[in-house]
């Protein structure tokens, strides 16, 4: 049972987050010349090896902290609203807390995507002190298997620690789709998240190039039942994933490279984690001209894309800025391949 003081403190922080979110929404509608969300990678190495994931290795060193500071400062100078730290496994970076502080110092919302394995009470409290504002853990199954070790059985104690100690928002994402043997596990995971006071979302696993794979009948049933649990979710753009669940393409204007930036460990800007290589421009030289160009560049991979975070920020501008095809983007998407800069 949480104390009255803890509950009051958390409610105050939640109100502050929501007010900042409203302010950033108004700013997003007023101007298209700044990124709304950037994913930044401080380390590619991960302590796990989920077979469906193409975003990790087992050997990379952490990006030097001073270099991460320069990248964060650049994102601040571009007017970025939210910076999410991802990986690999970002908790392997020895000075992650300092990077979070740097994000907050630049006036941006600080988020973290982690597999949760390295969370202990003291580590959660350090994240509180650093100013982290939201955290997401994806849990793939109830019991670990040879596809994924991110299981509720292993992580449930970590979730209890988060419920007890975290002052930041926590979202638990479960998945259905290719490689997940027991789709009904998503319901167990989602209900446990709600029970602990977290928000719950469900994602659809994409193939190696971020493209959709239609769900089977039982997977679709689980998916729609899970959507009913998302009333407390902070990421609800239902039509996008509803079409994916049915294997239908989406008609939308992807603003990757403009409203959404993916910055790899080498400091290059990419459309997303699944289309690395385009535009492939160093963040340090990225300008508002690059943002304006990519805002108007049509991405041929968009109709069959399952990368929902890009869609969530692109919905702000779906009504404006008609796009035109880019030869580079068209080549990448028509090949349907995952491109990675080494």
Q: What attributes characterize this protein structure?
A:
disordered C terminus; 11 helices; 15% strand; alpha/beta; 37% helix; two-stranded parallel sheet; 342 residues
Report on the architecture of this protein.
- It is a single chain.
- This protein has helices at residues 4-30, 65-77, 96-105, 121-130, 152-165, 185-195, 217-227, 238-245, 288-295, 308-314, 327-335; strands at 37-40, 82-85, 109-114, 134-139, 169-177, 199-205, 260-263, 268-270, 279-282, 297-298, 324-325.
- The chain is α/β, with parallel strands linked by helices and 342 residues long.
- It has a 9-stranded mixed beta sheet, with helices on both faces.
- The longest helix is centred in the N-terminal third of the chain and has 27 residues, at 4-30.
- The model is unreliable at 331-342 (pLDDT under 50).
Low-confidence stretches: 331-342
Order of helices and strands: HEHEHEHEHEHEHHEEEHEHEH
Question: Separation of termini?
Answer: 49 Å
What structural category arises from helix and sheet content? alpha/beta
Mean pLDDT across every amino acid position: 88
**Rg computed from alpha carbons, rounded to a whole number of angstroms:** 19 Å
Estimate percent helicity: 25-40%
Number of helical segments with 4 or more residues: 11
- What amount of the residues lies in strands? 5-15%
Q: What gross morphology would you assign?
A: globular
Major sheet summary line: 9 strands, mixed
Q: How would you write the strand order of the largest sheet?
A: 6-5-4-3-2-1-7-8-9
Query: What is the number of E strands?
Result: 11
